[in-house]
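for the record, two folds in this file. i put them one after another cuz i was lazy. first one right below, seq on top, structure tokens after. the second one comes after a little note so u can tell where it starts
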Amino acid sequence: MSYEQRRGWGRGRGRRGRARSFSSQYESGSVENPRGGRREKPPPHLKGREIGLWYARRQGHKSKEKERLERAVVKMDESREKHIARLLNSVQAQNNNERSSCSKGSWWATENERNNVSPQLRQPASSEVKDHDWDSEYAAEENEAGTYLDQQLREEMQKKRTNYKYLEMQTFREKLPSYGMKEMIIKMINSNQVTVISGETGCGKTTQVTQFILDDHINRGKGSSCYIVCTQPRRISAISVAERVAAERGETCGRENSTGYQIRLESQMPRRQGSILYCTTGIVIQWLQSDPHLANVSHIVIDEIHERNLQSDVLMAIVKDLLTLRSDLKVILMSATLNAEKFSQYFENCPMLHIPGFTYPVKEYLLEDVIEMVRYMPKDSDRRPRWKKRFMQGRMIRPEKEQKEELYRERWPDFVRKLQTKYSQSTIEALETADDEKVDLDLIVELIRFIVLKGEDGAILVFLPGWDNISTLHDLLMSQVMFKSDKFIIIPLHSLMPTVNQKEVFKRPPPGVRKIVIATNIAETSITIDDVVHVIDGGKIKETHYDTQNNISTMTAEWVSHANAKQRKGRAGRVQPGHCYHLYNSLRDSLLDDYQLPEIVRMPLEELCLQIKILKLGGIGSFLSKLMDIPSREAICLAINHLMELNALDNHEELTPLGFHLARLPVEPHIGKMILFGALFCCLDPVLTIAASLSFKDPFVIPLGKEKMADARRKELSRNLKSDHLTVLNAFEGWEYAKWRGARAERDYCWENFLSSNTLKMLSNMKGQFAEHLLNAGFVSSRNPNDPKSNNNSNNEKLIKAVICAGLYPKVAKIRQSLSKKRKIFIYMIALKSPHIHCFSLGETFQSRKTTSRIQLQWMNGLCFSPLQGLHT
């Protein structure tokens, strides 16, 4: 579609919009409220789930009425109208079953199912047919189908009880602590609208509570009315838990069975009734756009609420309001820690239940114990006082962190004196020279060797803050002859890895083979690796912090909280007595926070503000005030102002047409604007590639010791364009060509150019998802990012750069020449007072650090290269 055609299509939309104004007299008597005036309430005789179905039917009526009003009007005489009415009535009698299936919740249907559903045929003389007659007909039909399905589900359950695999799994389930409290859990959930359940890691709450609910409904003959949705904070946990539950029920995941999962770009959906769906929290929030009452959901389980991620906090606030409209909806909040009181108070002091876990005793070691045991001395040690090495780091961004560091410095001399009575001088020297701002991977390698040679058998689980640490440790281990043998299985585990690879972590190795899992905090609570005996806690966790004064976000490795440390300890000792090695000293341990800060108070709020408006949750400030922890007024105002500058919100904080489309795209608003420009200017494919890399990560990897080689290859791929964005584009296009040539060519291309094949595949999937959104919004005519009509200008390099700048503005920088001999250029930017080029940027590669202005290490440490945080030059 050409640019001129798009303009003509837009004008056509305007004509249809004006045509609707001539039908305003019909809108006042809509299906939702035939008499006009205040909103109609459900009939008083309806109770429980019937109220939710009533709202769903009303919403369906309203959508169909709106569709009817937007159609072209055709006039005909009375006899012709009666003839057509008779034909429609005869067809309608043959399609009752189709009508019943169409009335099911849209969030269960796939995109193809929704597109293929036939619209409801309407009665011609609506004044002669009352709403409650149609409702009665529908209710009778629904009850008949429900009774049959209830019986079918009960018979299916009875058959399972004779299945060997099911009985074997049942024996395992009965050993879990949660199973012993089954009746108590069911009774509490059935008696209360909201229930908080806390339980130690491994007690079985995530896998068992949902099954207790479903089995109870099936046994009581109410299986068809049970739709359980359990949210998970991570993709891997949604998949792994769903597959585990399906196995326990003697089934496979999805395929019209009782258990399934849905995550971004991947799903195995269960049957529509009498089922359990595990999904990421964002999926449920997306459903709310089309089904604000979640009419088909009978139970919503929000798991891992103790992590306090942004989406879970938002979902809890939405559900809290929804409970006033859905008296039949059951909400179960599940936490792995004992801070359940706060969640209970948030939901009007709802009842709480704690499931005690069973683990074998776990012996804990701190850093001084580990160093003494391994007899380790840091490489390239420096006898400078530890606080001088890091005094400036983070000071301008995290003042509260510096307060802790100041206290740490004051207590250090007394701490060392106490150590002298218990530990050797070499251990004290190692502690004084260690840089505890970084995770010492060499120490971890030595500790793993020590465990292998002198420790008990069993899997080793290593916690590290990020993928860079994981990949580096993996390479360090594989560089040693000991770990190259077939006696070891080393598995990196990260949320960005393909789900197929992640499943390997749950398999037990053969006898005589030791499994070593290197993971982020994803392995703290989201998944359970039941054969772990040794846990190595690196003591760090990646966190994003937003500085409102400088309008910058940083993702840095912060110290874990006591709650994190407890969870990590709990991963050992599930099969036998275990060991947990914390790589921080006892002084640091005394200064750790009890819990992590909630994401809502340390993250930018632009995306959340758009979500609030697209879900019609009211004013931004008023909704945010309903959250368990309220963001600062400064952060809220800054987000609103940014969206107004972006023209996503008007002066009344309402969505503009641009804002509406940005809210529909699952990316940060500036990236979304860039995507829309790419569609409008017909350079879609390259812009989608750049947008995917900005919202996810760039595909380049930098192996330890090969930094210069990686930089050289990156520079070659740039083709002297001096642009990070276009370099990623060139790398991606080269990978697509290599993939077309075959698997070996693809592997060689990635190896030679220091590219991650997994990341490139993820970027390709994301491009397809973005194109799907654009197709649904009417910006493109095909879901294929390479569609010729959408890429007439994709070879225009200047246009692509203009689209990038227009979308990301004002997060752009301009270089100005300087007359100074010391500084050859200045970097000027509206959005930041002190802009800085990332150390891996091509801007830094082509210009030495002496020629660029104000490049300071504390700003480059962990700086995320994205439009909210980095520069685009």
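(here's the note) second protein begins now
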Amino acid sequence: GLRWRYSEITPEIEQRLRNELNIIKQTGYAGYFLIVKDFIDYARKKGIPVGPGRGSAAGSLVAYALGITNIDPLRYNLIFERFLNPERITLPDIDIDFCYERREKIIDYVKKKYGDKNVTQIITFGTMAARAVIRDVGRVLKMKYNEVDRIAKLIPFGKNLDEAIALVPEFRQLSESEDETYRKLIDYSRVLEGLARHASTHAAGVVIAPAELTNFVPLYKTNQGDVTTQYDMKCIEKIGLLKMDFLGLRTLTVIDNTIKLLKKRNIEIDIDKIPLDDVDTYKLFSNGETVGVFQFESSGMRECLRKLKPECIEDLIAMNALFRPGPMVMIDDFIDRKHGRKPIEYLHPSLEPILKETYGVIVYQEQVIQIASKLAGFSMGEADVLRRAMGKKNPKAMQQQLKRFVEGANKNGIPTNIAEEIFDLMSRFAGYGFNKSHAAGYALVAYQTAYLKTHYPAEFMAASFSSEMGNTDRIMVLMEECRRMGIKVLPPDVNESFTNFVVTEEGIRFGLGAIKNVGKGAIESIVRARKKHGKFQTIFDFVQHLDLRLVNRKVLESLIQAGAMDSLQGHRAQLMAAVGTAINFAQSQQSASLRRQTSIFDVVEDSGKRKVGKYPDLPIVERWSPFTKLAKEKELLGFYISGHPLAKFEEELQAFSTVSLEALNSLQDGALVKVGGIITSIKTHHDRNQRIMAFVKLEDFSGSCEVLVFSDAYEKNQGLIKIDSMVMLIGQVSTRENENAKIICREILPLTEARERFAKNVCVNLNFEDINDEMLGKIKKLVQKNKGECFFLIHLINGDQRECLIRSQKFRVSPQENFISQLRQMLGKQNVWIEG
């Protein structure tokens, strides 16, 4: 194994391997490693993508040598004892990521190998957490939604109700309130908190027993008919059964499908051998252009990347570890140190080799272990026990560890006061220091996706689309990103499309699998007929060559409404009106063809040449309006493809929206926002005072969100709360744990009124070298004819691209479209814009 991984095996490598093997032998887990290696070898043999490694197992040289992981623990300075500690023997935990589409095949293999009755998945219980139980009880007590939501948000994340009463004065006052409703709310919630709310199958956990599982655990049959253990993960570990985590990772499927698309262009790529120092890939990270890049695509992360300007894989590992609750407070300090805005200082010179890659900041749990080992003489196993004690904040254990740490540091010539400072620094960071092995594994996957996006953008985006079919919000995000990248997204087409999204010379072609009501069998029939007979010319030509048991009326109507038959003769309204005739024609043609066959084998041996006969005429009907076309596309695809109702208001959305709906989750609870979009669904509801409120779905180019319109706002804005209404909305962000952010509406106005209400400046770029009296005269004349309330700002640019801003004190202008269009005709579209 080592010879496969290293061209030269140094004494240090050999010693590390021997140490690990000794610990594995001592703890009795050799068989565990071999079981994991076996099913990973099976996955690779069957072409099922396997992740490079996740969790602390990536710190094992043995796992790397066996091919269980694909991360060199020596290169990234990862620690084996963080995975398997002889000083604190617990069951090892090797978590494996597989392609999410084929994960079940690995489970089937393990069941077949070890016995179907010896292997099963593990149960998990959804419990009533503090905030959720307050909301559930509040609903039963028929309290106002916004009041219950306000009370629930008083509870700090991660705290239970008793802790919230102790920590939050306002919450404590409610629990002691004279108002019986508040007391009931909290008293009932305290009784119910922590109870199991529902049972389901754990997303990853699989248990392998040495004999039939019923000898060890009771089993449970889910509503879907699957069998799981009745014991959860922790109980399975306590009784000593072997637990594995088989995780389905969508990103591995995207990488695999990208590589398959590249093979169609005769481009071969080994994702495990791509260079990790590619300048263009780091440029993509530095620009924050990471939509679709694993773990790095949230708007908050993209903003941090623009500040960080990562230059190496170590920067990505650190950012992956830091961008989490807790360590997030260190991000600005980390970035400032990297760019020299803050000095990198060490309490003792021996800290430098350990903390140099993170610019003097403790980021990883492994660094705490290394400090204790190098400075105070702890074994790696003892240092891991110290790290865990620091994380648990046990005062008695901490005092004992401090004494031992100082004594060990003194022996290495480190004064007591410095040793105590270092210990205090370690204890502060240990609580939220991240597992470097896990961060390294996921940073590597992130880099792989970014590399593919950088060098093969169309293939990567097509594979990303295919992995998200059925997820409307996600498809919208990817479409917006393609628009930014200049990649054309083409509508589905029965003459071009396959099940998944594919790359063509023009751009990315939608997959037929993205259309509602169009199943796998129907798509295979279409592709088979197209391959045999060539491109279809008319709806009659199309239908007569298909298996009508698979491609029925519903399928045909769905294809037409989604625009997938636009390449055939006629417009969509004509095609819809001709569906019945086309089916009758096809049935008669197929029946006649069968009667002419002398045997079933003649059907198989048909030459495949299209027999052109007389087709029925298409009915003469009125075309659908553009709005009807878009509405039907939305119904069948979940989004608009040939256009967008908001297209004419794109400028208003860019100028006046404070955030896109896709980025809403990055905002703090209570943040004030101004957003624009189209209303796509409305659900009304009576509050406890029998007044109407509404749950509205608002959609823009990037995504959608739910808007809560309480009764007061509903009564003021009822006339605007209609399906397909295009509006600007002012409101407040409402966030809940594990839920998408919502907006609580304060005010709604039509998008047609947005310019008059929100526009502050009309801006133009003028190049100093292009200015002449004639141009200035025309601009002045236009400005005088379009007086209004907005400032007219001129950005004057010289040959060195330096800019001077001139604000007209004499003229105020109107932001209306006619004026803006005339300016753009004169100066170019990119040189004229509106600011809110």
